[in-house]
Structure formats: structure tokens, C-alpha cells
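Troubleshooting log. The previous structure file for this entry was overwritten by mistake, so regenerating from the original sequence record. Sequence copied from the archived sheet and checked twice against the printout by T.R.
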Amino acid sequence: MMSEQKQKSTYELKQIKIKKQAKLDNEQAWIDAQPMIRKRVKAFALGNVFTLYIYAMIFANLATMGQENGVMEFDILLMNNSTTVPDTDGVYPPSASEPKIMNTPLVERLNTFFAIVFIVEFVLKLGGLGIKFYFRDHFNK
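Regenerated output below.
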């Protein structure tokens, strides 16, 4: 009885392996059938340089958003080099009359820039990978 279960599980594992290989073969055939421009776009969009650039843009966007929403207080750190928090007469956040490092037009321009960068990334990856493979990558979900 034990040997029958073992044989059955071995057979099932072989069938699963065969199905996975057939799926990979079908995907590779689909990729090989694509035009050369799509292959080049895919190679560029999945390349190390482009990926590192996108990572840098993500972190820069996080820093900008943190500054915009008051999560990061760069202006306190840059305007007062001491370890104490400047006196704001008990009012927090500081009044609008105090100087700010990030002004609104600059933040809006940076947000627009980052939005354009991420839209271009989406279009390149979608064009190179196709919808099916784009959403298979957990980084794109």
C-alpha cells in the first residue's frame, strides 16, 4: 500500500513537471515569435541600468513626498544645526511665515516629473513584456 502511494506521488510529480515544462516552452515560443523591436524594448526595460534608475526615482519620490507631507523635517535639520527643536511658541506645525526649504511649485514640478517617469516605465515594460507577463512580475503589481 505504501509503495502504491509513493508511485502515485512520483507519477503526479512527473506530470506536474511535464506541465510546467510545456508552459515554459509555450511562453518561449510566444517570446520568439515577437518582433525584434519588442525584444529590444523588453531587454532595455528589464536591464540593470533602467531598473537601478527606477529604484533611484522611487527613493527620490519617497523623499519628496515625505518632505511635502511634513514627515521629514529637513528644514529643521538644515536651518538649525543643534540637536534641539527650534521654539515654535508651542505651535506645531510652525507658522507659514517661517521659511521652508521645499516650496509648493517645486514640489508640484517634482511630482509631475516622477509621474512621467513612472508612466514611461509602465509603457516600456508593458510594451516589452505584454499584459500577461507584466502582471506576473511581483514588482509590477
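Residues 2-32 form the longest helix (31 residues). Archived copy saved in two places this time.
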